[in-house]
Design goal:
The chain is an alpha+beta fold. It folds into 2 domains: 34 residues; 128 residues, Protein Transport Mog1p, Chain A. It is built from 5 helices and 10 strands; from the N terminus they run ααββαββββαββββα. An 8-stranded antiparallel β-sheet has the order 3-4-5-6-10-9-8-7, with helices on one face. A two-stranded antiparallel sheet has the order 1-2. β9 and β10 form a beta hairpin. The radius of gyration is 21 Å and the shape is globular.
Length: 171
């Protein structure tokens, strides 16, 4: 009974089988945005400095100015676009792997960015009032969007592990 469903041994069944197989990639594409790792223009947590530079060729990479357990290098690019929105980004790397990144953009673009992030990361696990705060979490890390009304810029901090607590602790 169950094996008939996957059997393609006759011409009529093989046509149905091929149609099911042909539709599978399209069904997966519909689910991928919700399953996407936290990324900025395809650079995810865990990416190498070489991958950051390949995607952001104008990024300025250098040693971190202060000693910390969270990162040992940073790569900054002040002129990028994310979801059609002008932004700047700082990637923080430890042992040649991105541990976190901070995306900054004009607060007037907040609604567009929130829409983009909801489409990209799915429904936030937490949402708060002013300062506007959205938070996404999964096993690979977490993302926090904050926007204070008196500030001109908003920020999306994406990280894994204890990055957020450790980044500004000087050792």
């Amino acid at each position: 009974m169950g094996s008939e469903q996957f059997s393609c041994n006759t011409f009529a069944r093989s046509l149905r089988c091929y149609r099911k197989i042909a539709l599978t990639p399209f069904l997966l594409l519909a689910v991928i945005p919700a399953l996407a790792a936290y990324d900025i223009n395809e650079v995810t947590l865990g990416a190498t400095e070489k991958q950051v530079k390949a995607r952001f060729p104008y990024a300025n990479c250098r040693a971190l100015e202060w000693p910390t357990r969270a990162a040992d290098r940073r790569c900054d690019d002040g002129r990028i676009q994310v979801g059609g929105i002008d932004a700047s980004v700082t990637f923080y790397l430890k042992r040649d792997a991105v541990e976190g990144f901070d995306l900054r953009f004009e607060r007037i673009e907040l609604e567009r960015m929130m829409k983009f992030l909801r489409e990209r990361y799915g429904k936030p696990v937490a949402e708060g009032p002013d300062p506007i705060k959205l938070e996404w979490k999964d096993k690979s890390g977490h993302a926090v969007l904050t926007a204070e009304t008196k500030r001109r810029r908003a920020s999306l901090l994406v990280s894994r592990g204890a990055f957020e607590e450790e980044i500004y602790k000087v050792r």
